[in-house]
Amino acid sequence: MNSENIPFTFQGELASQGFGSLDVRISSDFEALRDAWLALEVDGVFSLYQRFNWMKSWYEKVGKPARVVPRLIEISLRGQPICILPMGLRSRGPFRILSWLGDTHTNFHMGLYSREFLKGAKPDDIRSLIDYITSKVDGLDVLELCCQPVVWQGHSNPFTFLPWQEAHNHAFALELNSDFNAVLDRKNGPRKRKKHRWQKNKLKDVGGAKLLIAETVEDVDRILDTSMKQMSRRFDRSGIWNRFEDIGVGDFFRDLAIAELGKETPALKLYGLEIDGELQATFSGGVSQKHFSGCFISLTDGPYSKISPGELMIYLVIEDCVKQGLEVFDLGRGEERYKTSWCDMTVPMFDTAIALSKRGILFASYERTKATTKRLVRNNKTLWNFAKKVRARVYGRV
């Protein structure tokens, strides 16, 4: 399927607000939706990971080799886009699954929505729309949608109107303002300043630490090469499947970072913490609507690990975000000590797994059970620490 326009008529609350007759376009061509997509990026509701350049680059380098088939759903009213759902078809064994594009390389999965659409959307409207869309994608067994924020930019996620369950990982964010000291003070500022002074004193004999922000192709290559090596060692040691080693992932981050060099609001920006001529930590993230989303962080396991280069890196990156006039900084999903020590907001997340065929019932039930088990283990400190030790012992390679 390249592109298909399908008329759809709301019967619920949105119909009384002028949203009655919509055009639903299902396409596999990113370029065909470029104008509508970028129009929604001007004043819509979405995260960094739904930006056109991010999604298209991810699909070309990662999704296509993994045999993901795009199902880009554009919903328009009187010729104006009001919603884009960047989804894709993939297979797992005999099951055909419709899910968000971006896989685990994306911290927040959702659509792009006009604010008017979100304000008027009611449960019956959204359920009937999703039922209609899934009926137009042939051979579906399961609608599987993970890692979705319950609320974004003050708006309820319309996919909470579908059956869902709490995700095993929530996300963490920090509200920014123009005063970096005020930002620090919201989360134990005196301790952070004291730690920062101690770090600077420890590093004075080697010239201190320098925050490198990628400005050239050479910078991009240097930071990404270091990131991949540092993350590989950490994942191997912990027994974690390294999704950054999936086919095309390195090329995706490299090409996107290079394409975004010099832009005022880059979809991917790379940082490196240089000490004594070597990168001891790296950090990446992107900007969307004055919101900086952190994508990944990597740390040294060398002699400088004792001075906490990751914490020093985050300190300097947040300071840089304040200087840029950004309003929110997030560290993505997963409850880690360094995230909760910096962030003053929790972003609740949810997952959806809905069977769309008889054979899909088994898969959807399995996914819901797995997610519930993960959440129970993750929320129990004793079980979680035990699980991490077992994982490292069984799967660790270092």
How are the SSEs ordered, and which strands pair?
Blueprint: E1 3-9, E2 21-27, H1 34-43, H2 52-63, E3 69-77, E4 80-92, E5 95-100, E6 112-113, H3 115-120, H4 123-135, E7 142-149, E8 151-152, E9 155-156, E10 165-166, E11 171-175, H5 180-185, H6 189-203, E12 209-213, H7 217-238, H8 249-259, E13 269-275, E14 278-288, E15 291-299, H9 309-323, E16 328-333, H10 337-342, E17 345-347, E18 349-355, H11 360-378, H12 381-395
Parallel strand pairs: 5-7, 15-16
Antiparallel strand pairs: 1-2, 2-3, 3-4, 4-5, 4-6, 7-18, 8-9, 10-18, 11-16, 11-17, 12-13, 13-14, 14-15
Helix pairs in contact: 2-8, 7-8
Q: Number of helix segments?
A: 12
- List the uncertain runs: none
User: Taking Cα atoms only, what radius of gyration do you get, to the nearest Å?
Assistant: 22 Å
Looking at the structure, the CATH topology of the largest domain is Aminopeptidase
Largest sheet: 9 strands, mixed
Reading off the top of the CATH hierarchy, the class of the largest domain is best stated as: Alpha Beta
- Determine the fraction of residues in helical runs and give it as a percent range: 25-40%
State the order of secondary-structure elements, H for helix, E for strand. EEHHEEEEHHEEEEEHHEHHEEEHEHEEHH
Structural class: alpha+beta
Distance between the termini: 46 Å
- Overall pLDDT score: 90
Q: What is the molecular shape? A: globular
Count all strands and give the number.
Answer: 18
Portion in beta strands: 25-35%
Q: Kindly give the count of domains.
A: 2
Question: What's the CATH architecture of the largest domain?
Answer: 3-Layer(aba) Sandwich
